[in-house]
Amino acid sequence: MSMTEAIGRIQSIESMLQQLSQGVRPQATAAVATASTDAGTASSTDAASFAQALSSAVGGSTTPDVSQLASSLGVGALSGAGTGTATGAVTGDAVVADAKKYVGVPYVWGGTNPAVGMDCSGFVQRVFKDLGVELPRVVSDQMRQGTPVASLAQAKPGDLLVSFGGEHISIYLGNGKAIDAPVPGQTIQIRDAWEQQSNLTAIRRIVPAGGS
């Protein structure tokens, strides 16, 4: 091939590429606009279909990263994405660990703020709230939550011990120990579980049992 023929060939190819570019851009723009309009309701199938269509429109030889494309266009999350990461079930052991961090907080009747002080039910509510479990504010309602435990011998760490007809509530730690906000003038403390069948009103299991 002569130099003149080669130059002519190159010019022909450049002209063809320019024509293709001008023809593809409007198609790609239209595809993007359509995807943006439907972004609020697009499912994972819609996102994948759009990605394939866009790939074809721009003459791509490979399938683009659908997740990245959907994200950049604001299209709904693909299957398995955007649903949050599972944190796992809260257990009694987690309840015990969280409760212990409040040791030393003063008893304040009606209190729910650990920076100021808490009463027995405010303390229990706070511990479970820390773990993402909502409980009512007062003992009379807390003692109706979860599932019943037949006796102190069957209680597990994290169970709630309700005594004296619903006048007091504590958290069982296991091994004969409990933690509570006892009375005015004292602080949240770990103690022997003085609750006995004679003064126990209820034992409630709010989350799966902790260790023995």
Helix fraction bin? 25-40%
Record field, number of beta strands: 8
Number of helices: 6
Low-pLDDT runs of 5+ residues are 24-51, 53-87
- Structural shape: elongated
Average residue-wise pLDDT: 75
* Main β-sheet description: 6 strands, antiparallel
| Radius of gyration, whole Å | 33 Å
Structural class comes to: alpha+beta
End-to-end CA span: 89 Å
The SSE string, one letter per element, is HHHHEEHHEEEEEE
* Strand line-up in the sheet with most strands: 3-8-4-5-6-7
How much beta, percentage-wise? 5-15%
Describe the 3D structure:
The protein has 212 residues and is α+β, with helices and mostly antiparallel strands. It has six helices and eight strands. Helix 1 (3-37) runs antiparallel to helix 2 (44-57). Mean pLDDT is 75; it is low at 24-51 and 53-87.
Task: Give the SSE map.
Blueprint lengths: L2 H35 L6 H14 L8 H8 L18 H9 L11 E2 L3 E2 L1 H11 L8 H4 L4 E2 L11 E4 L4 E7 L2 E4 L8 E4 L7 E6 L7
Antiparallel strand pairs: 1-2, 3-8, 4-5, 4-8, 5-6, 6-7
Helix pairs in contact: 1-2
Main features:
single chain; 212 residues; alpha+beta; six-stranded antiparallel β-sheet; 8 strands
Concise synopsis of the structure shown:
With 212 residues, the chain is an alpha+beta fold.
